[in-house]
Amino acid sequence: ADAIVLGISGSLREQSSNSRLLSSIRGLLPDGMKLLLYDGLGRLPHFSPDLDGDDARPHEAVREWREQLQAADAVVICTPEYARGVPGSLKNALDWVVSSGEFLNKPTAVISASPHPGGGSTALASLMLTLNMMSASIPPEAAISIPFVSKKLGPDGNVIDAKTLTSLRNLVQTLIRTVHKG
Ligand code: FNR
């Protein structure tokens, strides 16, 4: 069976630049690897430990989120920065898997993108603190922020900037090596 890369966009916006960047990863994957996009961020309930106990029946959306992470050989998260932080819906999803441990040793690449010069690097740093706390395996070359993103995407949402394509290609290659190291 094909190896699965689970793509998670931190933006719920229909025309999201982060979702578009994430989709562009599909064309960079080698044969035998496929990108699945997780689309459940908006369906997850607000995390509370009260809903997460042994006696509570797991919410359907939470079960689906955890199963998709478990089935993934690698994860790519591409997120905007909201008010210098990780968007609440993405952080909420991550809070649901702190104690269940799906990110333990999971090969993970992280991208932030913004039309602003900072590229969302503050959110990226915060996201990495959270994922490192959960012992995700994030190789140093698999964490990038992309400033001025609106100039780097064409009208169809394809990546039109050569440097950005090279960074994404390097990120994917690094992620693949991490998967193979097991
Ligand atoms: C933003 N944006 C933004 N950008 C940034 O670089 N740093 C920031 O702190 C913020 N804060 C912020 C808050 C809110 C509420 C919004 C709606 C936007 C701008 C943001 O980067 C821009 O809207 C991106 O296009 C969002 O990514 P998507 O939705 O295109 O993937």
TrEMBL record:
InterPro entries: Flavoprotein-like_sf (IPR029039), FMN_Rdtase-like_dom (IPR005025), NAD(P)H-dep_reductase (IPR050712). Residues 5-147 form the NADPH-dependent FMN reductase-like domain. Gene3D superfamilies: 3.40.50.360. It holds the Pfam family FMN_red. Transmembrane segments: none annotated. SUPFAM superfamilies: Flavoproteins (SSF52218). Belongs to the azoreductase type 2 family. This is Flavoprotein. It comes from Gordoniibacillus kamchatkensis.
